[in-house]
Design a protein that fits this description.
One of its GO terms (molecular function) is glucose-6-phosphate isomerase activity. This protein has 958 residues and is α/β, with parallel strands linked by helices. The protein has four domains: 12-211 and 262-322, TIM Barrel (Alpha-Beta Barrel); 388-418 and 622-755, 3-Layer(aba) Sandwich (Rossmann fold); 438-613, Rossmann fold (3-Layer(aba) Sandwich); 763-957, Glucose-6-phosphate isomerase like protein, domain 1 (Rossmann fold), CATH 3.40.50. 54% of the residues are buried. The structure holds D-altro-hept-2-ulose 7-phosphate and glyceraldehyde-3-phosphate. Glyceraldehyde-3-phosphate binds at residues 471-474, 523-525, 528, 531, 586-587, 877.
Length: 958
């Protein structure tokens, strides 16, 4: 530590070297490197460079330096925002490192460094800081790199560990003396362990970055506040004398500590093995108060064995008019008095530096947020129509609430918590086990060959049909794929069976040639009743024609590993078994084999489909700011509006993707409808004028831009004008439908968190399955279902309900009531904010759809309530969860019939008709147990006549 007189021939900047101080540049951007300016600065005396999130924010967000590279990357392969940022940052860091390499060599590894900071989001996480630092160190792959780690309580142990692994560290955000001591200890201990392992401690360099000007800004503000109220002359003088003094005093004392510590015998041991001291680096050295000299934090902080990292303007000013002198060791007593006087004036330096550390972390987080958000905006602009667009218009008050909630998601790092699979974002039970879908596109793309192989086989074997047998999460995505992609030349047509209604099974069977059909039995759990009995039935039918040996060839299974279905498939020699991912629940499984195997079998280019979906995965990544994040934005809208009473998510889909609504219904209802809360999806409700809608709605219009429906366009525009909240999603290409699967999965998870439920279980679906099982078991034993008595019978129509609902209805209608009276009484229970659900356990065919849709429309228009239509048992695996577990705002009209013809289930006493009847009764029993307003109308054998009677009766009432 020798003080050397400045040489007169050098400019002030170069002269600093003679005082033992190295000047680093606190700035980086692409043009600085490519224009040759950095090299010039190096030639002029700059011996290192530092970067931080704010510097990169200014460089990347505030310039066009990176735009060409960004466009080139995005046009060849979409990347997520964090990987784009890193591509830019790492290239700049590597290029700067290469420019600085000669200095690194000349100074024998003392100077010539460039610093890159770990993500500020990790400032309070030791383990993640360590792994992130290791990863960056490897990626940059330059010996003259320093990884910046903050001096937070979590950062300090990381620093020690990283030093012990031979990684150069710049300790950043250092403000306080006592923290400095911990940092030095971490450095020395780290070096000792490296030495003990036989590592090369001579190659390690580290700096401890003391932030200077921020201390003056913070302290001066407190002094100024006190001066406003203090009248005591002595006190005022004391306070005034401290203005602009504390930061430098603090730095001088830190420097004194440095000199003492590195004299210690503990250090001498390392020093004798060639270890370098961890130099103090003065950071935050641009002057903030215009009343102070613009080179204050350079001139006052000069001393041997130190670094000053200086922003460009300060650097230019000092080069021009700086007066170097050996200042750090001057006036140490004054420095001590300054800090004592500060204490005497009642200003705590400790509290100030603690606050500065917290604020410092937050400032870097804010800068990083802004940086990533700017890159995301550029990325989405480049992607253009390749990314489904989301726009929304909400009434002002709702919009404010949504923006506040998005701020909460941003500021509290909730998107990162979601991606980090943090169960406490929901109810903290086991949600972390059900987030496997977050990484599914990448996983699937890695195993794409199996899907391609299947597609080729299906084509070669010239199947005419693929019949998918499954329920809910195992059937709804294939249905969307079928409608969206239709029939591809050379590939079979897809049919989906998800009903136990005998007429429906017959209708499907009549469309296929059993010998030229590939059957896909799809069940995640493998234990769901319906796919198991569908398999029994069709396997038996194929066996009858092709013989026991060959039947298995026509079947493939999609199921989770180890399930009952896997064993059945193996036992029956199925052609193939595709496995699901156990960490993905059924309704989140669209992009896994459950959606992609049937898609491949009908000739969808699954690689392209998944690649396209990945664009949305990137857009929803943890690093994308809440307000730019299309899944998080949608989730916040849905969650916040639901909490404000707008829980009826009304789905409007272009005709070409109409089935997407059924998939969304399951996702939204089953995920959120529980604990008396949740979203009630309203799908396929005929569109009406704005005046038929209540204030419990939010509309989501998913529009195929290449095949829009003008009636829908006009109706949605009118709703928007009438002040209803409307979300619009524009899809430019059918292959982009996969983007919606992912966006809505994220949105549902986010909405679930806001609503405050576990978005990944379905407790109330299980409840009706249990009752159904009891009823079918009883049938197996006795050959009949338990008897039940109607509350009304006439003209072949019967009404049933539970005792509580019966008491309420009969009290209202009196004794000799007619069917219309009962229906009237039941529908009169609908209040504003309620919804009506028709639960139809009849064949889902065009004629029935038309009749039920008309009934639905009549009720909606007359009562201004939302209406739903579900065919049983299909909806049991979907909206059934919300009907039973969600808000008690549903009024249910269950519709059952006697099946004109029935079908036996091989090896069982019960028939498909019996199963369907048991399912309807199980469903009703649980609705009643949950205190729901429910009535069942049994149409008898003639469903057409029964529906007509029902329609007329309802018309009469309304
Ligand atoms: O590398 C470092 C410190 O290690 C520097 O880039 C450091 O982050 C900067 O000097 C400060 O962030 C600048 O702070 P300020 O001038 O905005 O207060
Ligand atoms: O949504 C899921 C359905 O309940 C079917 O379940 P599964 O795929 O386990 O058979």
């Amino acid at each position: 530590m020798v003080t050397v007189k400045a040489s007169q021939t050098k400019n002030p900047l170069q002269a600093l070297q003679s005082y033992g101080q190295s000047v680093w540049l606190d700035y980086i951007r692409r043009n600085l490197i490519t224009s040759g300016e950095l090299q010039q600065l190096i030639d002029d005396g700059v011996r290192g460079v530092t970067s931080n999130p704010s510097i990169f924010e200014k460089a990347i967000a505030g310039s066009t330096d990176y735009d060409t590279t960004l466009t080139t990357i995005e046009q060849s392969q979409d990347r997520d925002v964090i990987s784009l940022y890193e591509t830019f940052a790492i290239a700049d860091i590597q290029a700067s490192a290469d420019h600085l390499k000669p200095i690194y060599k000349q100074t024998n590894k003392r100077d010539g460094y460039i610093s890159l900071e770990v993500s500020p989001y990790l400032a309070n996480d030791t383990e993640q800081t360590i792994s992130e630092a290791r990863r960056l160190w490897q990626e940059v792959d330059r010996p003259n790199l320093m990884i910046k780690v903050p001096a937070t309580p979590a950062g300090i142990p990381a620093i020690q560990q990283l030093i012990s692994e031979g990684i150069n560290i710049n300790v950043t955000l250092l403000f306080a003396q006592d923290v400095y001591e911990q940092v030095v200890n971490a450095y020395i201990t780290g070096l000792e362990s490296l030495a003990a392992k036989g590592g090369d401690i001579r190659s390690i360099a580290s700096v401890a970055s003391f932030f200077v000007s921020r201390i003056d800004t913070a302290v001066d503000n407190q002094i100024t506040d006190r001066l406003k109220t203090s009248t005591d002359a002595g006190q005022r003088n004391l306070l005034k004398g401290l203005l602009g003094k504390v930061a430098i005093a603090n730095a001088k004392l830190a420097y004194k500590s440095y000199q003492d510590i590195y004299q210690s015998s503990r250090w001498q041991k390392l020093s004798s093995q060639g270890a370098q001291t961890q130099r103090l680096l003065w950071a935050s050295t641009g002057t903030k108060n215009p009343q102070y000299s613009d080179v204050l934090y350079v001139e006052e902080l000069i001393g041997s064995d130190t670094v000053n990292t200086i922003p460009p303007a300060t650097l230019a000013a000092f080069r021009d008019r700086g007066k170097p002198k050996s200042s750090l060791t001057e006036g140490l007593d004054d420095a001590r008095s300054t800090l004592l006087n500060l204490q005497q004036a009642g200003i705590s330096l400790q509290q100030t530096t603690d606050r500065l550390l917290t604020e410092g972390v937050q400032l870097f987080i804010n800068a990083f947020d802004q940086l990533l958000s700017a890159v995301e905006k550029k990325r989405t602009a480049i992607l253009g129509g390749k990314l489904d667009r989301l726009t929304y218009k909400l009434p002002d008050a709702l919009n404010t609430a949504v923006q506040d909630s998005l701020d909460d998601w941003q500021q509290n790092g909730k998107i990162r918590r979601l991606w980090a699979q943090d169960a406490t974002l929901w109810t903290g039970v086991d949600e972390n086990k059900w987030l496997g879908w977050l990484g599914i596109t990448e996983d699937q793309l890695a195993h794409i060959d199996r899907l391609k192989q299947l597609a080729q086989e299906v084509k070669d074997l010239e199947f005419t049909h693929v019949l998918l047998l499954g329920m809910g999460g195992s059937s709804l995505c294939p249905e969307v794929m079928k409608l969206t992609f239709g029939k591809t030349k050379g590939f079979p047509e897809l049919l989906v069976l998800d009903s136990t209604d005998p007429a429906q099974i017959k209708a499907i069977e009549s469309q296929i040639d059993l010998t030229r059909t590939l059957f896909i039995v799809s069940s995640k759990s493998g234990s769901t009743l319906e796919p198991n009995i569908f398999k029994q039935y069709f396997f038996d039918r194929v066996q009858q024609i092709l013989g026991a040996e060959s039947a298995g060839n026509r079947f493939i299974a999609i199921t989770d590993p180890g399930s009952k279905m896997q064993h059945i498939a193996e036992g029956d020699d199925f052609h193939r078994i595709f496995f699901g991912v156990p960490g993905i629940g059924g309704r989140y499984s669209a992009l896994s084999n459950f959606g992609m195997v049937p898609a491949a079998a009908i000739g969808v280019d699954v690689a392209k489909f998944l690649d396209t979906a990945e664009e949305m995965v990137h857009s929803c990544a943890s690093s994308v700011a809440a307000k730019e994040n299309p899944g998080v934005v949608l989730g916040n809208i849905l969650g916040v509006l639901a909490k404000g009473g707008r829980d009826k998510v009304t789905l409007i889909t272009s005709p070409g993707i109409a089935d997407l609504g059924a998939w969304l219904e399951q996702l939204l209802a089953e995920s959120t409808g529980k604990d008396g809360k949740g979203l009630i999806p309203i799908d396929q409700e005929p569109l009406g004028n704005p005046d038929v809608y209540g204030s419990d709605r939010v509309f989501a219009y998913i529009r195929l831009d290449f095949a829009p429906d003008s009636t829908q366009d006009a109706a949605v525009a009118a709703l928007e004008q009438a002040g209803q909240p409307v979300v619009r999603i524009a899809i430019a290409d059918p292959y982009q439908i996969g983007q919606e699967f992912f966006r809505w999965e994220i949105a549902t998870a986010v909405a679930g968190s806001i609503i405050g439920i576990n978005a990944f279980n379905q407790p109330d679906v299980e409840a009706s399955k249990i009752v159904t099982r009891q009823l079918t078991a009883e049938y197996e034993k006795t050959g009949k279902l338990p008897p039940e008595s109607p509350i009304f019978t006439a003209d072949g129509i019967q009404l049933f309900t539970d005792p509580k609902n019966a008491a309420i209805l009969t009290k209202t209608v009196g004794k000799s009531a007619l069917l219309v009276d009962y229906l009237h009484a039941h529908l009169n229970r609908l209040q504003a904010g309620d919804y009506l659900a028709l639960l139809a356990y009849i064949e889902s065919n065009d004629e029935h759809q038309v009749q039920l849709q008309a009934i639905r429309e009549q009720i909606r228009d007359a009562k201004q309530v939302a209406t739903c239509l579900g065919f049983g048992p299909r909806f049991l695996h979907s909206t059934g969860q919300a009907y039973k577990g969600g808000p008690n705002s549903g009024v249910f009209l269950q519709i059952t019939c006697d099946d004109a013809t029935d079908i036996s289930v091989p090896q069982q006493k019960y028939t498909f008709g019996v199963v369907k009847a048991a399912q309807a009764r199980g469903d009703f029993q649980v609705l009643a147990e949950r205190d729901r307003r429910a009535l069942r109308i049994h149409l008898g054998k003639d469903v057409r006549a029964g529906l007509a009677t029902l329609k007329t009766a309802i018309k009469q009432i309304l």
